[in-house]
């Protein structure tokens, strides 16, 4: 039954790590803007000057 | 017969989506409404940034307004107040850009480095409409960065006051979030550790009971001393000021629970109330957070400083030099360009001044000033540059003196909420019940039961659900109002709104629509004739002609020959070979039977009378309906800074001339509100301009009406978008319903308290009952308030 002490210790430690992670996220301002990153991720990568249609032709045999 | 003019809207500007003029500007087969829009497109396409137009249709903003000058951004003294951080290499600045509104904006502004390579990074905060820009010092300057932003159509709003405010507000919210996180963390763990005891432990497992108990106590420490600390300080401060509010029973409950838990666990006589304690603090803090949520993109505490420019151009020895407004001194010569605001009372020395005072005095027509006349601060110069000499310091001018009034220094009395009143009686009743239960058991000589019942009463009656009913109801109402473009400063404003019995209206800009100068045409006129009228009127600088040109929306086509203007009477000329006359009846040579009320412009082309344009004030949509509905149960007053030209047309709306007042100075307005309040009335003031600022501040509830919520609006309790003006009776109904919901939820939570008290006074309250009753009552209240607030909103057609 002594195992329980160890397990509870582990679970509290794990929970503390998550709490610390939350504090770190909050302090570095990750909760300040919860909208913009969701939009930002949807932007396409840069098309670097070259026409995308030409590129697809290269793969054709 | 009235004839509405329709304009072909099939084609739109590629950049901003505005209607195209007769001859649009073309580039790459794309039509543009003005040179500004075309210019932005040109810049974007040359930097390969045309994806801007791919993410959204017509993402741009109209570029018709002339842009401002930014020379002052080169001044180190001004710069120091604006930037966030600077070192030898880079500078970081956060700018507020009202034009940010779609994903294209985010994409373009975060790709700013492609247009201006010296920009290292630009990050957008979309909801706050802010962009944080990092740029290299040695390659560029703030002025150049700002000018780049302007060139792509994103002009930042630079104001000293807003910048300061931004940094202050962020901090307290983050602290509260941290407290919630700690309380939530402890609550979760304590729940897990308390369950075994509730389910029953076998004799074998008894050793765990003490272990779990001590562990629970350890978890309660941060909850009581970190998360719940504010309740103790607030209760203490309130007691010192002899005020009983809800924080007192809350603090008492927390303290008693904590002490009794220590006693039970250390003597091994029970499990304590640690889980109830942690849950209580956790839920309370969430309620507090709901109550504190505000709009980051709106500012309710603005005074003249955020309306006035950051800097002004001073002329010394013939040289122009920008300087911060605070350094402006008496006798200095200043240069005001077209569309700039005059920052201090000054004498006109050079140039033609035509000044729009509508925001300051409520006068709807621009005023012409000539050499040597005094120009009051706050006016906007409309045409050409002028030079002035400052005769009064910025803070002492006609307009800004208003802010020296005591109304701006004395803190507005905190709005008295229902929960404030109720909690006073609640606290007293609670103490009476607790003491009499203890006394009863003492009489029977059972002192241990007396202590048990006394503490149990304080624990179980701890008004958690009571404290949550107001924040959750009001937060729900706030978000309902928000969807209808009515933005409140705080949740307490909702309750105040339900109590209002007197409405005071400002005229210009508040009940009239500043965008649409109202013209209606009586008679018949074709497109070609309209073109002639527009081309003739374009020659005149008279406000009425200019409004007419704006309203007709025709682009110039024909030149005018033999143009003549008789001041105050009319215009005539030959346009496209036809003789066109417009002006008063006598000028164009027509006899009229009765004098029309509003300003009328008669049209005669080739000696044929076609009809007349009448310019009447355009009320905001639904104004008549609104007045009718509000007038049924409240008093209506009108305070206008304008002359009484519209008195007759307003008489049907406001009963008796006693309640309509014209030619009111800002101070008059403030005093008038004070008089109404001394008659024990709850006054709501609708205003829009700086001249209403005093009245808005003095009134019980100041509502700023605006057509663009990002524009400047004076200090107020609520901002109302002009398009939702007609919904105001619904808002009031919703506020009254919200108060009703709060009353009902009070009854519900009191019922739970009575159930708990039944066990508590007998001294048989087990931790399990408390642990069940507290969360159940809390969740009932949260569900009940948010659901019923939304049901009422649906009934009121607000959802």
From TrEMBL, chain A:
Lineage top rank: taxon: Bacteria
UniProt entry keywords in alphabetical sequence: Membrane, Transmembrane, Transmembrane helix
Transmembrane segments: 6-25
Signal peptide: none
Name this protein carries in UniProt: Cbb3-type cytochrome oxidase maturation protein
Species this protein is from: Pedobacter metabolipauper
Source lineage: Bacteria, Pseudomonadati, Bacteroidota, Sphingobacteriia, Sphingobacteriales
From TrEMBL, chain B:
Domain HMA: 91-157
Record localization: Cell membrane
CDD domains the UniProt entry points to: HMA (cd00371)
A GO MF label: ATP hydrolysis activity
Segments traversing the membrane: 176-199, 211-232, 244-263, 269-287, 425-444, 456-481, 741-762, 768-793
UniProt membrane topology term: Multi-pass membrane protein
Gene Ontology process terms (BP): copper ion homeostasis
Keyword tRNA-binding: no
SUPFAM superfamilies: Calcium ATPase, transduction domain A, Calcium ATPase, transmembrane domain M, HAD-like, HMA, heavy metal-associated domain
PROSITE patterns: ATPASE_E1_E2, HMA_2
Top-level division of the source organism's lineage: Bacteria
Record-linked InterPro entries: ATPase-cat-bd (IPR021993), ATPase_P-typ_cyto_dom_N (IPR023299), ATPase_P-typ_P_site (IPR018303), ATPase_P-typ_TM_dom_sf (IPR023298), ATPase_P-typ_transduc_dom_A_sf (IPR008250), ATPase_P-type_domA (IPR059000), HAD-like_sf (IPR036412), HAD_sf (IPR023214)
Keywords linked to the UniProt accession: Cell membrane, Ion transport, Magnesium, Membrane, Metal-binding, Phosphoprotein, Translocase, Transmembrane, Transmembrane helix, Transport
Cellular component aspect of the GO annotation: plasma membrane
Pfam families listed in its UniProt record: ATPase-cat_bd, E1-E2_ATPase, Hydrolase
PANTHER family according to UniProt: ATP7, ISOFORM B, CATION-TRANSPORTING P-TYPE ATPASE-RELATED
Family stated for the protein in its record: Belongs to the cation transport ATPase (P-type) (TC 3.A.3) family. Type IB subfamily.
Database matches in NCBIfam families: ATPase_P-type (TIGR01494)
Stated name of the protein: Cu+-exporting ATPase
Organism the protein comes from: Pedobacter metabolipauper
């Amino acid at each position: 039954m002594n195992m329980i002490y160890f397990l509870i210790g582990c679970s509290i430690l794990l929970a503390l790590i998550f709490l610390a992670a939350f504090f770190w996220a909050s302090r570095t301002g990750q909760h300040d803007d919860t909208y913009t990153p969701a939009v930002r991720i949807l932007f396409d990568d840069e098309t670097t000057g070259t026409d995308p249609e030409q590129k697809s032709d290269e793969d054709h045999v | 017969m009235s004839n509405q003019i329709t304009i072909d809207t099939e084609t739109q500007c590629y950049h901003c989506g505005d209607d195209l003029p007769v001859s649009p500007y073309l580039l790459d087969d794309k039509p543009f409404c003005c040179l500004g829009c075309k210019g932005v497109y040109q810049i974007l396409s040359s930097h390969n940034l045309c994806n801007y137009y791919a993410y959204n249709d017509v993402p741009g903003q109209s570029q018709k307004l002339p842009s401002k000058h930014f020379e002052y951004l080169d001044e180190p003294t001004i710069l120091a107040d604006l930037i966030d951080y600077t070192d030898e290499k880079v500078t970081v600045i956060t700018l507020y850009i009202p034009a940010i509104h779609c994903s294209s904006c985010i994409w373009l502004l975060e790709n700013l480095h492609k247009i201006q390579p010296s920009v290292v990074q630009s990050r957008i905060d979309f909801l706050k409409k802010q962009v944080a820009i990092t740029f290299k010092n040695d390659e560029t300057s703030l002025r150049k960065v700002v000018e780049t932003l302007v060139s792509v159509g994103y002009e930042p709003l630079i104001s000293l006051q807003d910048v300061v405010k931004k940094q202050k507000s962020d901090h307290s919210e983050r602290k509260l979030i941290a407290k919630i996180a700690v309380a939530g963390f402890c609550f979760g763990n304590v729940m897990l550790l308390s369950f075994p005891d509730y389910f029953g432990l076998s004799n074998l497992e008894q050793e765990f009971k003490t272990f779990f108990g001590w562990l629970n106590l350890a978890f309660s420490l941060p909850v009581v001393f970190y998360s719940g600390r504010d309740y103790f300080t607030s209760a203490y401060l309130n007691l010192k000021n002899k005020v009983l509010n809800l924080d007192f029973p809350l603090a008492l409950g927390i303290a008693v629970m904590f002490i009794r838990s220590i006693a039970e666990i250390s003597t091994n006589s029970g499990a304590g109330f640690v889980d109830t304690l942690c849950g209580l603090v956790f839920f309370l803090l969430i309620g507090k957070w709901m109550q504190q949520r505000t709009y980051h993109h709106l500012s309710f505490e603005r005074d003249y400083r955020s309306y006035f420019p950051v800097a002004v151009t001073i002329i010394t020895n013939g040289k122009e030099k920008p300087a911060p407004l605070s350094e402006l001194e008496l006798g200095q010569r200043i240069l005001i360009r077209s569309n700039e605001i005059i920052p201090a009372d000054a004498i006109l020395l050079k140039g033609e001044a035509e000044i729009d005072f509508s925001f300051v005095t409520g006068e709807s027509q621009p005023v012409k000033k000539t050499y040597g006349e005094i120009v009051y601060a706050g006016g906007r110069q409309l045409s050409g540059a002028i030079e002035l000499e400052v005769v009064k310091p910025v803070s002492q001018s006609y307009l800004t003196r208003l802010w020296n009034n005591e109304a701006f220094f004395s803190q507005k009395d905190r709005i008295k909420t229902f929960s404030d009143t109720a909690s006073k009686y609640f606290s007293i009743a609670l103490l009476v019940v607790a003491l009499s239960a203890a006394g009863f058991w003492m009489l029977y000589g059972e002192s241990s039961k007396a202590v048990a019942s006394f503490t149990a009463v304080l624990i179980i009656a701890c008004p958690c659900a009571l404290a949550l009913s107001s924040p959750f109801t009001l937060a729900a109402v706030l978000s309902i109002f928000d969807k209808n473009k009515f933005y409140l400063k705080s949740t307490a404003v909702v309750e105040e709104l339900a109590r209002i019995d007197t409405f005071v209206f400002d005229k210009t800009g508040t009940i009239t629509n500043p965008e649409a100068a109202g013209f209606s045409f009586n008679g018949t006129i074709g497109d070609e004739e309209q073109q002639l009228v527009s081309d003739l009127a374009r020659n005149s600088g008279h406000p009425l002609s200019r409004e007419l040109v704006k309203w007709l929306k025709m682009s110039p086509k024909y030149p005018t020959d033999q143009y003549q203007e008789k001041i105050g009477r009319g215009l005539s000329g030959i346009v496209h070979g036809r003789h066109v006359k417009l002006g008063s009846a006598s000028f164009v040579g027509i006899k009229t039977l009765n004098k029309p009320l509003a300003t009328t412009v008669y049209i005669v082309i080739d000696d044929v009378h076609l009809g007349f344009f009448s310019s009447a004030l355009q009320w905001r949509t639904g104004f008549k309906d609104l007045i009718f509905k509000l007038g049924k149960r409240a008093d209506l007053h009108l305070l206008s800074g304008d002359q009484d030209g519209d008195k007759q047309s307003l008489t049907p709306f406001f009963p008796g001339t006693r309640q309509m007042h014209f030619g009111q100075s800002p101070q008059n307005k403030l005093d008038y509100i004070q008089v109404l309040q001394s008659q024990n009335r709850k006054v709501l003031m609708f205003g829009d301009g700086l001249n209403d600022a005093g009245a808005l501040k003095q009134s019980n509830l100041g509502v700023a009406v605006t057509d663009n919520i990002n524009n400047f609006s004076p200090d107020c309790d609520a901002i109302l978008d002009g398009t939702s003006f007609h919904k105001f009776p619904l808002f009031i109904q919703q506020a009254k319903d919200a108060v009703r919901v709060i009353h009902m939820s009070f009854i519900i939570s009191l019922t739970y308290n009575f159930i708990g008290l039944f066990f508590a006074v007998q001294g048989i309250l087990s931790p399990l009952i408390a642990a069940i009753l507290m969360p159940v009552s809390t969740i009932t209240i949260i569900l009940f308030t948010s659901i019923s607030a939304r049901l009422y909103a649906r009934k009121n057609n607000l959802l």
